[in-house]
From TrEMBL:
Annotated Pfam families: Ig_TPPC8_C, TRAPPC-Trs85
InterPro entries per the UniProt record, alphabetical: Ig_TPPC8_C (IPR057651), TRAPP_III_complex_Trs85 (IPR024420)
GO CC annotations, alphabetized: TRAPPIII protein complex
Identification of the protein by name: TPPC8 C-terminal Ig-like domain-containing protein
Organism: Suillus luteus UH-Slu-Lm8-n1
Biased composition regions of type Polar residues, renumbered to the chain: 321-351
Segments of this protein annotated with the region Disordered: 321-357
Length: 1318
C-alpha cells in the first residue's frame, strides 16, 4: 500500500471552460468547474502499477484542479514578488483569525496533544500553492481538461476553438500533459440525448478517446446545499492598477469569493460527477502516466546499464563518450495523440528549459507509488545536484541519513546572506509542511529523525509569520517529547518574531506557553540530600531563571499595550527577581530592549522604567485606590544578618569580633579575682533613643529609591493605639541606592514607658510608588534534638529583633573631650582627656578600661603632678621575662560617681605602627563590691604617620676593646619637620653597649640621616643564657612530642640599660610602654613564625626577652609641632649560638613515626618542626672570627736583602659557653683578591690553638717580601671544631665543624716600600 502523499505532491489538473459552460454553472448556483471537481478529491481505492507491473493500491488518490487562465496569468508574475505576496497573505489570514483561535484553544484541556488551528491554516495555505515553479515540476499541469456544454449554439465549434487555443505558458513550463475533452449535457440543453451522443462520438473520433460526456440534471430552482470538504485557500491574484499588476502587496480590501463548504447539486448529479472523476483518473490519467513512466524509465536505464568504469575506459581508449539523452518539451507522438504539443508563447523571451525528463520521471513514479524507482531516480538527481533531498525523507525508511537529506535540502535553498529572500522562505515552508504531514508522528519525533528540529531549520532567521509558526509548532512537538526547556525557547523565538509582525494575540499566547514551560520543574528524581546540602525545599523551584526575564518582559509590554495595565505591573515587578547577575540571555534578543542588546547590565534599568510607567498609569486611571495589596516586591533590600539594635551607649564603629576579644580579656582577668559576671543585657532606657541599624543592599544594576523607610513595631504592653501614643518611631529620609551598593541606615526609636518591643519589619515605598513591608524574621535554627527531627527537616520558630525598655538604673557615659581628627607620628605619646559621667540612677564605684591586644595606653594616676624621674636612676630593669596577656586598667576615682556626677581622666596613647586604626576602649563599671558589672564602649579613629626611618646592623668588632660593633641609622623622612633625637637607650640582659661617639646636638632636618655606633661587650653573667635556653628547649620538646604544656614561667632577667642622651627627663609611663611594645613585637613574631602553636600557650613556652638580644629605644621630639615620643627597635641578636634544639629535633625525627589517618595532621607536624628548626632558639653560627691587622706600611732597603715583616692574625671565640679548637693555614694561592701581590710567607704557615669561651689568641706569621709592593693578606683558611662545654675530667667532644676563608671582597693588605729608591 502506497504512502499517502501531501496534496502539494498530487497531479495538477487545469480546466479551460467555455463561456457557455460558465454561464450554465452560474445560472445553476454552482461554483466554477474546478471548484466542483475539487470537491470530489481525493478518490478512494485507486490502483496503479509500477514499471515491474506490480499493482500498488492507494487508499486515497488526490487531485488538484485549477483554472487554466489563472495559472497562465500567475506564471507571468515574478516568483520573488509572488512569494512576498504569499507570505503577506498568510500573515494577514492568521492575524485576522488568531484572536478567536486563541480563545477557543485555551479552553481545551489537552492543548499539548491537539493540533493547533494556526498550524493547520499555515499547512493548508502552503499546500494551496498551485502555481508552477522553475525548480520543480509538481505544480506543472499534468492534464488540461477542455470543458464545454451542449447549451452552446454550436458545441462542436466551441470544442474546436478550445483545442486550437495556444497555451500562454513560459518556456520553463513542461507541456507534457494529457488533453482531455469534457462535454457537459444538462437536462435543459437544446440538444437531445441522441444529438449529444452524436456530438460525443464526433469529438472522440476527431480528438481521441480522452473524451467524456457528463449528463447532469441541474434542476431549477437548485436543490438544497450539500456539505463538501473545505477547499484549500489559494493566493488571490494581484490587484490590477492601470493595466499592471501591483506585485508588491495584495489588495487586502478586495476579498476573493470563496465558496462555502456546500454544493447545491442533486444526488444524481453528484453520483454522475463522482463517476466521471473516477473514470478520468483510472481510465485516462493513471494509464497515461504509467505509459510515460515506462518510456522515460527505458531512457533513464539505458544510460546507466553499463558501469561507469567501462565508459571511462571507452573514452580513454577510443576517444568517445556515451550519449546523454536529452528530454525535449515536445514529445514525438502523432497529431492525434492525447499529448498536447501545440506551440507556446514566451512572455519574456527567456529560454529557460522545463524540468528534465529524469525529474518528471521521479515525480510521476512518486505519484504512482513506484517508490523503488522513485528513490533511485531521486538519489541520482541528488548526486548530480539537481534536487531530490526534499522528497527522499518522505520515501525512505527512518535513519540518520534522513537528517542529512533534510539539512542538504534546506542548505540548498538558504543563501548565505543574513536575510532570507521570500521565495526561499516559501520553499522552506513547503518542505517543512510536506515532511510534517507525511511522516507519522512517531517517526517524525523519534530520536533518530528529531523532526521538530527540521521545522526550526526551515524557519531559519526569517522574521515573517510563517517562520514564527514553524518555531511554534516545533515547540509544540518538543512538549510532546517532554523537552520543555527547548520548547520554551522556541515559543519565545516564535513570539519575538510574531511581535515584530504585529500579531499580538498569538504573541501573548506563545509567551504565556513559554512562561508555563519555564516554571515547570523537570521530572528528575533528586536525592533528599541534595535539597539539604543546598538548603532549599523541593517546592522552592521558581523556574528556569536563565530565560524567565526574557519571556516576562515582552509579555508585560504586550499586556500594557493591550490595556491590561494591572497585569503589566505585576509582570514588570516580577522581573526584578532576576537581577542582571543572572539575567536571561533571551533579554538581549528582545527587539524592544535595544539598550539591553548593547549593555545587558542595563536590563534592570529597563525593567524599573517600565514598572514606573505602568504603575503611574495605573494610579492615574484608578486613583490612589488602585488595588495593589496583592502586588509584592519579589526581592529584598534588607540584609537580615547585618540588621541589629544599637543602644546609645554602644559604639557605632568597631567590629563585633574586636569587642568580643576585649570581653574575653576582661573575663580572663576577673576570673582569678571574683565571681561577678559582666551583664550583657542590651536593654534600652526609658526616654532614651536607641537605633535599629538596617543594612540595605541593592541587588539590581541600577539606581533605586526607597522612600520614607520606617519600622514596624509590636509590643506586648499594648495594641497599635498604645504604641502610637508611647513609642516614637523615626521615619528616615529617602534612601537612594546606586547599582549593587550596600548602605546602612539607622532608624531611631524612643519609648516613654517601659515595654517589651518586637521589631517585625521595615516599611518603605519602593520608588515612591509601591508600599512595601519587608519582614525582619530570621529562620530559626535547624532542630536535631530528636531522631524524628534528624530525619525530617525542622526548624525552630522564626527569630525577631526583640528589646526590653526599662527604667535607667546604672549607666556610664564616656566620651573623648576632643573628638576631632587625630594624626600621630610613629612612637608619639599623646595625652587625651576622657569625660565620664553617671547617666543612671545608681552610684558607680569601680571603673576599669579594657584596650585591645595591640593598644598601648596608660592611665595617669591622681597624683600625676609629681615631676618626672631623671635618667640617672634608670640603670637596670628586673623583668619576669613573661609574655603577659593584655590586662585591664583600673581608673582611679576620688569618690563614687553619684547620679549625674562626672569626672575627667587622662589617658596617654602610644602610637604604634604606621596605619589607620581605631582606639576601641571597653569600659567596665559597677556600683561596688559584689555588684554585677556593666559595660560601655567608646571609639576614636586616628592615623599614624612615619617620621623616622630606622635600621640597625651588627658585626664582630675589629677592635680588641669590643666584641661586636653596632650601628643605628636614623633618617628623617618627614616633609617639613625637624626631629630632635634626645636619647638612645640600649637594653640587653647579656650585652653591655657603650657609644663610640657622643649624641649629636643638632636636629635631623627633612631627608637628613645620621648614624650612631656602639661597642658591645658581654657582661659576664652567662647563667641566664643557659637557663632560658634550657627552658625553651624543654617546652618545645613537649610541644613536638605532643605533651601537655605546664603553665610555669620562664627564668627572670636583669636587663642592663645604656644611655646616650642630652639633657632628658623620663616620663613615668616610658617603662610601661617599652615593655608593652616588646610584648606586641614578640607576639607578632611568634604568630608569624609558629602558626601551628596555639597563641594561648605562647606565654608558657617562649620568654619575653632572648638573653642575647639587644633593643634600642630612640627618644625623639618635634618642637615645632609639640610632639614627642619613643620608638622601640628589637631586631639584633648578638653572640654565637650552637643549635640548642638540635638534640630535641633529632630525637623527634629519629623516633618511631606514628601514622595518622589524616594527611593534614602530618603536614601540620612537619610544618611545626620546620618552624622550630628555623627559629632563633635553634640558631647556629661559627663562633671563631679571624681579624687580620692590615694597613701597615713597612720601609725596607731591598739592597740589603729581602724584607722579613711580621703579620698578626687575631682569632677570637665569640661563644659564651663553648670552647673551640682551630687550625689556621696560610697559603698565598688561596688569596681572594687579584688586585695585590700574593703574600709570600716564610717559616711556619700552620697554626693550631685552643680557645675558651670569649677567649682571644694572636698568631704571628712571617712575610718574606722580595720586592716592594702591596701584598694581600687574604690568603688564609681557618678550620674550627666547636666542642661541648667543659666538664671535669671529660674528653673532648666535637659539636660542630666549620671552615672559613677570607671574604671575596676582603681588601686587607700590607705595604712594603723600598728605601733604596729615591
Amino acid at each position: 500500500m502506497a504512502r499517502v502523499l501531501p496534496s502539494s505532491l498530487t497531479p495538477h489538473i487545469c480546466i479551460l471552460p467555455s463561456q457557455d459552460l460558465e454561464e450554465l454553472l452560474q445560472s445553476s448556483a454552482l461554483p466554477s468547474l474546478h471548484h466542483i471537481l475539487q470537491s470530489f478529491s481525493p478518490l478512494p481505492q485507486v490502483t496503479t502499477r509500477t514499471t515491474a507491473l506490480t499493482t500498488v493500491p492507494h487508499t486515497s488518490f488526490a487531485l488538484r484542479f485549477s483554472n487554466l487562465t489563472e495559472i497562465e496569468a500567475a506564471c507571468r508574475e515574478d516568483e520573488e514578488q509572488r512569494a512576498t505576496r504569499t507570505i503577506d497573505w498568510i500573515g494577514d489570514r492568521i492575524s485576522k483569525r488568531c484572536a478567536k483561535w486563541v480563545d477557543d484553544f485555551e479552553k481545551m484541556n489537552d492543548r499539548d496533544v491537539a493540533r493547533t488551528p494556526w498550524w493547520d491554516e499555515l499547512r493548508r495555505c502552503a499546500e494551496g500553492d498551485h502555481i508552477p515553479a522553475r525548480d520543480e515540476g509538481w505544480n506543472h499541469p499534468m492534464s488540461i481538461i477542455l470543458a464545454v456544454s451542449t447549451t452552446a449554439p454550436n458545441p462542436l465549434q466551441a470544442i474546436t476553438a478550445l483545442h486550437s487555443r495556444t497555451l500562454d505558458f513560459p518556456s520553463w513550463v513542461d507541456v507534457t500533459h494529457l488533453i482531455y475533452t469534457l462535454i457537459i449535457h444538462p437536462k435543459n440543453s437544446p440538444l437531445s440525448d441522441e444529438e449529444a451522443g452524436a456530438l460525443f462520438n464526433a469529438v472522440k473520433k476527431q480528438y481521441g478517446l480522452h473524451t467524456h460526456l457528463l449528463s447532469l440534471e441541474l434542476p431549477f430552482p437548485p436543490p438544497p446545499p450539500v456539505s463538501i470538504p473545505a477547499l484549500v485557500p489559494r493566493l488571490p491574484p494581484p490587484t490590477i492598477i492601470n493595466g499592471s499588476a501591483d506585485a508588491v502587496r495584495p489588495d487586502l480590501k478586495t476579498t476573493q469569493t470563496v465558496p462555502l463548504n456546500t454544493l447545491r447539486m442533486s444526488e444524481q448529479d453528484i453520483q454522475q460527477t463522482a463517476r466521471f472523476a473516477r473514470e478520468f483518473v483510472t481510465m485516462n490519467l493513471v494509464p497515461w502516466m504509467e505509459k510515460y513512466v515506462i518510456e522515460w524509465n527505458e531512457t533513464y536505464s539505458s544510460c546507466r546499464r553499463l558501469p561507469s568504469r567501462l565508459f571511462s575506459s571507452t573514452r580513454r581508449l577510443f576517444g568517445t563518450s556515451p550519449a546523454t539523452p536529452v528530454h525535449t518539451s515536445t514529445p514525438s507522438l502523432s497529431a492525434r495523440s492525447s499529448t498536447y504539443t501545440a506551440p507556446q508563447s514566451s512572455v519574456s523571451g527567456s529560454t529557460i528549459p522545463p524540468p528534465s525528463q529524469q525529474r518528471r520521471l521521479a515525480e510521476f513514479a512518486t505519484i504512482l507509488g513506484d517508490f523503488k524507482l522513485a528513490v533511485a531516480v531521486w538519489e541520482s538527481l541528488r548526486k548530480e545536484g539537481k534536487g531530490g533531498s526534499d522528497i527522499l525523507p518522505l520515501l525512505i525508511a527512518p535513519s540518520p541519513a534522513v537528517q542529512l537529506h533534510v539539512s542538504h535540502a534546506l542548505n540548498t535553498i538558504h543563501p548565505q546572506s543574513p536575510e532570507l529572500p521570500s521565495h526561499a522562505q516559501l520553499r522552506a515552508l513547503l518542505y517543512a509542511v510536506r515532511w510534517e504531514s507525511t511522516l507519522t508522528i512517531g517517526d517524525f519525533l523519534s530520536d533518530t529523525l528529531e523532526g521538530e528540529r527540521w521545522l526550526v531549520w526551515a524557519a531559519g532567521n526569517a522574521e515573517e509569520p510563517p517562520a514564527a509558526l514553524l518555531l511554534a509548532h516545533a515547540a509544540l512537538l518538543s512538549v510532546r517529547k517532554n523537552s520543555r526547556r527547548r520548547a520554551a525557547l522556541w515559543y519565545f523565538f516564535a513570539a519575538n518574531r510574531l511581535e515584530k509582525c504585529g500579531i499580538k494575540p498569538l504573541t501573548m499566547y506563545f509567551l504565556r506557553r513559554a512562561h508555563e514551560l519555564s516554571i515547570s520543574r523537570p521530572d528528575k528524581l533528586l536525592s533528599p540530600s541534595f535539597w539539604m546540602s543546598e538548603n532549599k525545599q523541593p517546592s522552592d523551584f521558581e523556574g528556569f531563571d536563565a530565560v524567565m526575564s526574557g519571556i516576562e518582559h515582552p509579555l508585560g509590554r504586550l499586556l500594557y499595550t493591550t490595556g491590561d495595565v494591572s497585569g503589566a505591573v505585576r509582570h514588570f515587578l516580577g522581573l526584578l527577581r532576576w537581577s542582571s547577575a543572572s539575567s536571561s540571555p533571551l533579554a538581549r534578543l528582545s527587539s524592544h530592549t535595544a539598550d539591553i542588546t548593547k549593555d545587558p547590565s542595563s536590563s534592570d534599568k529597563v525593567f524599573l522604567e517600565d514598572f514606573q510607567v505602568a504603575i503611574s498609569h495605573l494610579k492615574s486611571i484608578s486613583g490612589e485606590q488602585a488595588r495593589l495589596e496583592d502586588v509584592k516586591l519579589p526581592l529584598r533590600f534588607v540584609v537580615l544578618s547585618q540588621t541589629c539594635v544599637r543602644l546609645a551607649r554602644d559604639s557605632v564603629e568597631g567590629e563585633q569580633s574586636e569587642w568580643d576579644t576585649r570581653e574575653e580579656i576582661w573575663s580572663s582577668f576577673w576570673k582569678r579575682r571574683g565571681k561577678e559576671k559582666l551583664e550583657r543585657s542590651g536593654n534600652a532606657a526609658v526616654e532614651e533613643a536607641f537605633w535599629v541599624d538596617i543594612t540595605l543592599r541593592n541587588p539590581l544594576d541600577t539606581e533605586v529609591t526607597l522612600a520614607k523607610p520606617t519600622l514596624i513595631v509590636e509590643s506586648s504592653s499594648g495594641d497599635a493605639a498604645w504604641i502610637q501614643d508611647n513609642i516614637t518611631i523615626e521615619t528616615a529620609e529617602d534612601t537612594i541606592l546606586y547599582a549593587n551598593e550596600s548602605r546602612t541606615i539607622s532608624i531611631a526609636i524612643k519609648a516613654s514607658k517601659p515595654a517589651s518591643l518586637t521589631i517585625t519589619g521595615v516599611a518603605y515605598d519602593f520608588l515612591g510608588l509601591l508600599p512595601t513591608v519587608e519582614s525582619l524574621a530570621r529562620r530559626g535554627r535547624r532542630l536535631q534534638d530528636t531522631p524524628q527531627q534528624r530525619q525530617t527537616i525542622a526548624y525552630a520558630p522564626n527569630e525577631l529583633l526583640k528589646l526590653d525598655v526599662e527604667e535607667a538604673s546604672q549607666e556610664l557615659a564616656v566620651a573623648f573631650v576632643d573628638d576631632g581628627p587625630l594624626v600621630l607620628a610613629e612612637g608619639e605619646c599623646k595625652r587625651m582627656k576622657l569625660w565620664m559621667s553617671n547617666a543612671g540612677s545608681r552610684d558607680i564605684g569601680d571603673v576599669w578600661v579594657v584596650p585591645g591586644p595591640e593598644d598601648q595606653i596608660w592611665i595617669e594616676p591622681l597624683d600625676s603632678g609629681k615631676g618626672p624621674a631623671t635618667g640617672i636612676e634608670w640603670k637596670t630593669w628586673h623583668s619576669d621575662n613573661k609574655i603577659d596577656p593584655p590586662t585591664p586598667y583600673s581608673i582611679p576615682l576620688v569618690e563614687k560617681l553619684v547620679t549625674a556626677g562626672s569626672t575627667e581622666v587622662t589617658v596617654v596613647l602610644h602610637a604604634g605602627r604606621k596605619r589607620k586604626q581605631n582606639l576601641s576602649l571597653l569600659f567596665i563599671y559597677r556600683e561596688g563590691q559584689g555588684s554585677p558589672f556593666h559595660c560601655t564602649r567608646v571609639t576614636r579613629s586616628y592615623e599614624v604617620i612615619q617620621c623616622l626611618q630606622i635600621s640597625t646592623a651588627s658585626q664582630p668588632s675589629h677592635s680588641p676593646d669590643h666584641s661586636f660593633s653596632l650601628s643605628l641609622d636614623l633618617s628623617n623622612i618627614s616633609s617639613s619637620s625637624n626631629v630632635e633625637i634626645n636619647q638612645v637607650t640600649t637594653i640587653s640582659a647579656t650585652w653591655s653597649c657603650s657609644p663610640l661617639a657622643e649624641l649629636w646636638s643638632e636636629p635631623l632636618r627633612p631627608s637628613q640621616s645620621a648614624r650612631i655606633s656602639f661597642g658591645a661587650n658581654p657582661t659576664g653573667d652567662y647563667a641566664c643564657v643557659n637557663a632560658v635556653s634550657a627552658f625553651v628547649s624543654r617546652k618545645l620538646s613537649n610541644v613536638l612530642h605532643g605533651q601537655a604544656i605546664a603553665p610555669d614561667d620562664p627564668p627572670p632577667l636583669e636587663l642592663l640599660c645604656g644611655h646616650v642622651s642630652q639633657t632628658f627627663a623620663y616620663e613615668p609611663f616610658v617603662t610601661h610602654f617599652i615593655m608593652n611594645a616588646r610584648r606586641i613585637a614578640v607576639s607578632h613574631s611568634l604568630a608569624q613564625s609558629h602558626p601551628r602553636i596555639p597563641t594561648s600557650s605562647h606565654s608558657s613556652i617562649f620568654p619575653l626577652y632572648n638573653p642575647l638580644s639587644v633593643d634600642f629605644v630612640i627618644f625623639w621630639k618635634i618642637p615645632s609641632e609639640q610632639r614627642s615620643g619613643h620608638i622601640l627597635v628589637s631586631e639584633i641578636t648578638l653572640g654565637a649560638s650552637h643549635a640548642a634544639l638540635r638534640e630535641v629535633i633529632d630525637g623527634v625525627e629519629s623516633a618511631k613515626i606514628k601514622r595518622s589517618m589524616y594527611a593534614e595532621t602530618q603536614r601540620e607536624k612537619v610544618e611545626m618542626l620546620q618552624a622550630i628548626r628555623d627559629s632563633e632558639w635553634n640558631a647556629e653560627m661559627n663562633p671563631v672570627v679571624v681579624i687580620v691587622k692590615d694597613g701597615l706600611v713597612i720601609e725596607h732597603d731591598f739592597s740589603q736583602g729581602v724584607c722579613i715583616a711580621p703579620v698578626e692574625f687575631t682569632i677570637h671565640n665569640h661563644s659564651l659557653s663553648h670552647p673551640s679548637h682551630f687550625v689556621l693555614r696560610l697559603d698565598h694561592h688561596q688569596q681572594s683578591s687579584s688586585r695585590h701581590l700574593p703574600t709570600p710567607y716564610c717559616g711556619r704557615t700552620t697554626f693550631r690553638g685552643h680557645l675558651e669561651p670569649l677567649q682571644t689568641s694572636s698568631v704571628l706569621a712571617q712575610l718574606c717580601a722580595t720586592r716592594p709592593g702591596t701584598y694581600a693578606l687574604s690568603g688564609w683558611r681557618l678550620e674550627v671544631e666547636v666542642g661541648k662545654p667543659n666538664t671535669e675530667g671529660g674528653s673532648w667532644q666535637i659539636r660542630h665543624r666549620y671552615e672559613q676563608r677570607a671574604a671575596v671582597d676582603d681588601l686587607s693588605s700590607i705595604i712594603v716600600s723600598d728605601l733604596s729608591r729615591p
